[in-house]
Write a structure and sequence with these properties.
The complex is a heterotrimer of chains A (356), B (401) and C (334).
Chain A: H1 2-8, H2 18-25, H3 33-43, H4 45-71, E1 84-95, E2 101-112, H5 133-169, H6 171-186, H7 189-202, H8 211-239, H9 242-249, H10 254-290, H11 302-307, H12 316-320, H13 322-350
Antiparallel strand pairs in A: 1-2
Chain B: H1 5-8, H2 23-44, H3 51-54, E1 63-76, E2 79-92, E3 96-100, H4 107-115, E4 123-133, E5 139-141, H5 147-150, E6 158-161, H6 165-168, H7 175-186, H8 192-205, H9 211-215, H10 224-236, E7 242-246, H11 254-271, E8 274-279, H12 282-288, E9 291-296, E10 299-305, H13 306-311, H14 316-323, E11 372-374, E12 380-382, H15 391-400
Parallel strand pairs in B: 3-8, 3-9, 6-7, 7-8
Antiparallel strand pairs in B: 1-2, 1-4, 4-5, 9-10, 10-12, 11-12
Helix pairs in contact in B: 7-8, 8-10, 10-11
Chain C: H1 2-10, E1 14-26, E2 38-50, E3 54-58, H2 65-72, E4 80-85, E5 88-89, H3 95-101, E6 105-108, H4 122-133, H5 141-151, H6 168-180, E7 186-190, H7 198-215, E8 218-223, H8 226-232, E9 235-240, E10 243-249, H9 250-255, H10 260-268, H11 308-312, E11 318-321, E12 324-326
Parallel strand pairs in C: 3-8, 3-9, 6-7, 7-8
Antiparallel strand pairs in C: 1-2, 1-4, 4-5, 9-10, 10-12, 11-12
The chains are: A mainly alpha (356), B alpha/beta (401), C alpha/beta (334).
């Protein structure tokens, strides 16, 4: 019965005679499919939380810099020299004449210009180079989000074209494309990205500002296979639908059949996979930046901000300056979680059967 | 689906296109639904309901089931769907009652209400009662019965056969296991051996050749007709008093359908049970049923014995249905057809639901809903053609009495 | 115009001639050589359809009637045999030219829910191919689509609506409008009624009949419902397990069914009259698997009149009387 009502949900009381229809149509109206999706999406608390998270991150990264520039005039790479006295404790050990070991402490005060603690002027303080951390978090978010959107867009585009070709034509086209997909899927992503990034940064003649474009290209190259698989699977399923057969019998061109009938119907799945993929790209980008292979200094990136706390360069920042690296970490978590929540919510909203 | 459709929507000038609910209406409906559903669910989830609350008396002791003014609604996002809207009819002992109607007329929901299987929380029995004469001599009102008590009746005393047997059999268990399980669950003191013996007996009864082989095969290894036989055997396993057959032959081919119909009639005589036979096929009904109930948009528009309905149909809808089926009797060149679309019972107007599709519509038809007119003790139809009594007036009169 | 008329004369007015059509599907892709098993979905089927008439193709599920329809339109490639449509052998037409010929032969599908692309508005669904094949000049496009919609009982305001807003019957009208808009000569109707409600079925039947009268279409009407086929067709073919069992003029077949299968099929149809007790022939058993059909006559495993010869020889479709052919050993095959 549930099915029966579902089927009839979209029923309307039209009739041969115009008048009857207008009469009875006032009785019963349906919810448009777009709104139905929105309704299901907003029913889940988690997707609302995700949405709030992402809206926050977006405002923070794209509107934040404008505000901070307008109120304080801070720039991404503006150095603030804030003088303050810092206790310096140095110690040395020596063996005394009595044979015992002695430790020698020297406590003094020095003048420090960087690494300012949080204050009214600099809410999160400044970092080792004297940059304002809050400002840099905002610019870092800008880069992360921009990169991830561009990468996902390119990935999806390549995935649609290749997956679509594989799914629609089948046979050897499918074989060739899917084997390429398999090969890419076998490659260990992170090591290869590391090697490539290292190679790029060692090649002279490539300006450091351009490294970011190569980074995007690599991420795209690694990521399109997932989209291609989804599109191919969807198209294999949709190809068997009767409306595709109808398109063939009416003699619609192949190109139009693919782009007017097949691709639009894979959109829901693509939107979901793209949303879920955004978080992944942000993680990749952060990892690379952390390792110094991503967005080059002095541009800000969340990953390189966390890298300040790299324990291999000394414990000092990790232990004493959480204000330098914790916020960046928190922002990464918020963004990735937010995109996952929205992605899950969208998936359930597009296809309620996936739930439960 | 179409996230972007809403942006593309265009209109033809001068036509008010009001297919969609506004956001405000939608919110209001959701809010109302939540409130109503919460109330019903609370009533359903009460613990320790005493037996007196759902014990009742049959109007006629020769009936197995009496539906009395049953209302089952679905509180959906687009409004309240009155799937079953005041349905009353009886299922006598040892008879086949056929329920006919088109999609969305509420015939399946009626049977699901009887089984307490209406899909909650959106679906709720709102009003009315279903009296059931149990095998222990007591008479229960199923609408008020607690769920745990219902478990003892469902599957044992009332069994169900569905349209698509593949979806109602579990694909990972063998046929025998599934049948034995039902017996072990319902029969007290059943042992695995006795259950097996009983299953095989039932498979024999439904005319399956090579019973042992079928007993130890998986559902997908059987053909559609075979699976439906297995479903029937499974329904018979606990000697039910009533079998609900919900479109049992719709998915089958005609020659297989003939076999299954024959089998059902045969089986009914053997176990002396009743069958509630739900279908959209008038031919099947004519062949199978003793009594016929014709439903339209959640209401019964005509009921009677099979002869009364087929030889002397009263309601224009029943007449139209019969005329619109091509057959040997065809004399005219053109097939009769009922115009318009099959309605979905949401926000139905307060007049005859068939009004806009009816050839014989009169002025009064657009003003009131007709009450049941009696043509014989068994034959009734709700149509103003045979008298100007509206349903509301009638109800008011009854209340006054 | 004159040339076309000449052509028609030459062809004796048979718009479609199907001869020895075969469609086999390999059961397993991996089996090689001789062991390769086939499902003989359509096995040596021949028939002709006269211009402007309707041929009904009946049979139970798995009898290959849908496959016949689809192979005629070359939605599936033909394994063997010929399909001659309007004087051209379709199985030899190159793919490119086939696309240009498509508008002449259309199809109406069974499931009105999956046969309409959910993301296109109605006007676009109907008109897409009209645009592509330039059936009407651009300036007349819209009024032409609206006219077709009107012919099929669809109101103009549906033009911008999406399929999900319609009920099954309305969707089937859209599906018919899509086929009709291309000005076809021949339409294959693949169980167009089986997903519809009883009261809607008769509307669609009438619509199809009206359109035929108005525009002279030729239909191949595929269905499992004998009463509908009886009403709508001029000639009838009865199929069982990929083979034609009986074929001929409707009136002759219904008045005098010859093949035991046709007899059983006819008697199995429930009659809407409780007092008519049919002398029913109930067939034993199920339809055999088409992978492994019985030897000789495919129907012999369920046939009440089976003889020894039925297991040995495949009966041929032979003319029993004028316009009535039957494939059964009962009627003295040599």
């Amino acid at each position: 019965m549930a099915l029966e009502t579902e089927k009839n949900k979209n029923l309307n009381y039209s009739d041969m005679s115009e008048q009857v229809e207008t009469d009875l149509e006032q009785n019963f109206r349906v919810i448009s499919p777009g709104r139905m999706v929105a309704k299901r999406f907003f029913k889940s608390k988690l997707s609302i939380v995700g949405l709030i998270m992402i809206i926050f991150v977006f405002l923070f990264s794209f509107v934040g810099p404008l505000i901070i520039d307008a109120t304080w005039g801070y720039k991404e790479t503006q150095v603030f020299r804030i003088e303050r006295n810092s206790d310096m404790v140095s110690s040395a050990q020596f063996n005394g004449p009595d044979g015992k070991q002695y430790t020698y402490y020297d406590k003094s005060q020095t003048l420090v210009l960087f690494k300012a603690p949080p204050s009214a002027d600099h809410w999160l303080g400044t970092d080792t180079s004297g940059f304002d951390i809050l400002t840099r978090l905002m610019y870092g978010g800008r880069i992360s989000l921009t990169i991830s959107f561009i990468v996902i867009f390119l990935e999806t585009f390549i995935g649609i074209v290749l997956g679509g070709l594989a799914g629609y034509f089948g046979k050897w086209v499918d074989q060739v494309i899917m084997r390429i997909v398999d090969i890419f899927a076998c490659l260990p992503g992170l090591p290869i990205l590391l090697i490539l990034s290292a190679t790029i940064s060692s090649i002279e003649g490539i300006p450091t500002e351009h490294r970011i474009y190569y980074l995007m290209a690599f991420l795209t190259l690694m990521g399109w296979t997932g989209v291609a698989r989804i599109v191919r699977g969807q198209i294999l399923m949709l190809r068997e639908q009767e409306y595709m057969m109808a398109a063939e019998t009416t003699g619609i061109k192949v190109i139009n059949r693919i782009f007017r009938h097949l691709i639009p119907n894979t959109m829901p799945q693509l939107i979901v996979s793209a949303t879920l993929g955004l978080g992944g790209v942000i993680l990749y980008e952060s990892t690379l930046s952390y390792l110094g292979l991503g967005v080059p200094f002095p541009r800000a990136a969340w990953g390189s901000m966390i890298a300040l706390a790299d324990p291999s360069k000394g414990q000092e920042i990790l232990a004493n300056y959480p204000n330098m690296w914790v916020p960046a970490g928190v922002l990464i978590v918020i963004t990735v979680l937010g995109f996952s929540f929205i992605g899950d919510g969208l998936r359930d909203a597009f296809d309620p059967r996936m739930k439960r | 689906m179409g996230l972007f459709d809403i942006f593309k929507r265009k209109k033809i000038e001068g036509v008010d296109d009001t297919m969609y609910l506004t956001l405000r209406e939608e919110r209001r409906i959701s809010k109302e639904n939540n409130r109503i559903i919460r109330e019903f669910e609370r009533a359903k989830n009460r613990k320790n309901v005493s037996e007196e609350e759902y014990l009742t008396q049959m109007r006629d002791p020769s009936n197995v089931v009496e539906f009395d003014n049953l209302h089952t609604y679905f509180f959906t996002d687009v409004g309240t769907v009155k799937s079953v809207n005041g349905v009353s009819f009886d299922i006598p002992q040892g008879k086949i009652v056929g329920v006919v109607g088109e999609s969305g007329c509420g015939k399946s929901v009626t049977s699901l209400s009887l089984m307490q299987l209406v899909q909650g929380p959106t679906g709720q029995i709102v009003e009315g009662s279903i009296r059931y004469q149990a095998s222990d001599g007591k008479c229960y009102d199923i609408t008020k019965m607690p769920r745990d008590r219902m478990l003892k009746i469902r599957g044992k005393e009332i069994a169900m056969i569905f349209q698509e047997p593949m979806t109602s059999l579990n694909p990972v268990f063998k046929i025998g296991q599934q049948m034995d399980e039902v017996i072990l669950l319902h029969e007290e003191g059943a042992t695995p051996e006795s259950a097996r013996a009983r299953s095989i007996e039932m498979l024999n009864l439904v005319g399956i050749a090579g019973v042992e082989k079928v007993y130890s095969s998986y559902p997908h290894e059987l053909s559609g007709g075979m699976r439906q036989r297995v479903m029937i055997a499974m329904a018979l396993v606990c000697n039910p008093r009533l079998i609900i057959a919900d479109e049992p032959t719709t998915a089958l081919d005609v020659t297989i359908q003939a076999q299954i119909l024959e089998l059902l009639r045969d089986v009914k005589n053997k176990i002396n049970g009743s069958i509630m036979f739900i279908t959209h096929d008038l031919g099947v009904i004519a062949e199978m049923a003793d009594y016929v109930v014709v439903m339209y948009a959640g209401r019964i528009i005509e009921k009677g014995t099979v002869r009364e309905i087929f030889h002397d149909p009263k309601h224009p809808y029943t007449v139209g249905l019969m005329k619109s089926k091509p057959g040997r009797h065809m004399t005219e060149d053109r097939l009769y057809s009922i115009r318009g679309q099959v309605p979905n019972p949401i926000n139905m107007p307060n007049h005859c639901y068939f009004y806009n599709r009816c050839d014989k519509a009169m002025e009064i038809c657009s003003k009131d809903y007709p009450c049941m007119m009696e043509f014989s003790p068994t034959h009734q139809a709700a149509c103003f053609l045979y008298g100007q009594n509206s349903l509301e007036e009638n109800l008011a009169k009854e209340e006054g009495r | 115009m004159a040339v076309e008329e000449m052509k028609m004369e030459n062809m004796n007015d048979d718009i479609l001639i199907v001869s020895n059509l075969k469609k086999y599907y390999p059961v397993s892709k991996f089996a090689l050589g001789k062991n390769r098993a086939y499902v003989k979905a359509v096995d040596d089927v021949s028939f002709k359809i006269k211009r402007g008439t309707t041929m009904g193709l009946v049979g139970e599920s798995g009898c290959g009637k849908t496959t016949v329809g689809r192979t005629i339109l070359r939605l599936h490639e033909v394994t063997g045999g010929q399909v001659i449509f309007d004087g051209k052998d379709l199985s030899k037409v190159p793919k490119k030219d086939l696309r240009k010929m498509r508008p002449q032969m259309q199809m109406i599908f069974q499931d009105p829910y999956s046969s309409l692309s959910p993301r296109l508005p109605v006007g676009e669904i109907i008109g897409e191919a009209v645009k592509e094949h330039k059936i009407v000049p651009k300036s007349e496009y819209r009024s032409y689509i609206l006219k077709v919609m009107h012919d099929c009982g669809l109101q103009p305001q549906y033009y911008y609506r999406y399929p999900h807003e319609f009920s099954g019957g309305q969707r089937q009208r859209i599906s018919i409008a899509r086929a009709v808009a291309l000005k076809p000569k021949f339409i294959i109707c693949d169980e167009p009624l089986s997903a519809l409600d009883v009261s809607i079925q008769s509307q669609i039947i009438n619509l199809m009949k009206d359109l035929q009268e108005q525009y002279g279409y030729t239909y191949l009407f595929i269905s499992h419902d004998l009463s509908v086929v009886e009403y709508i067709s001029d000639t009838i073919g009865v199929m069982y397990l990929g083979s034609m069992m009986e074929m001929g003029d409707k009136k002759r077949i219904f008045a005098n069914p010859m093949h035991p299968y046709t007899k059983a099929l006819l008697s199995a149809v429930p009659v809407s009259d409780p007092d008519v007790k049919m002398n029913r022939i109930v067939l034993e058993g199920d339809i055999p698997s088409p992978v492994n059909p019985p030897s000789g006559c495919k129907f012999r495993t369920r046939c009440p009149n089976a003889m020894p010869i039925c297991a040995e020889k495949v009966p041929k479709l032979k003319e029993y009387e004028d316009e009535h052919m039957v494939a059964c050993h009962l009627y003295s095959q040599d």
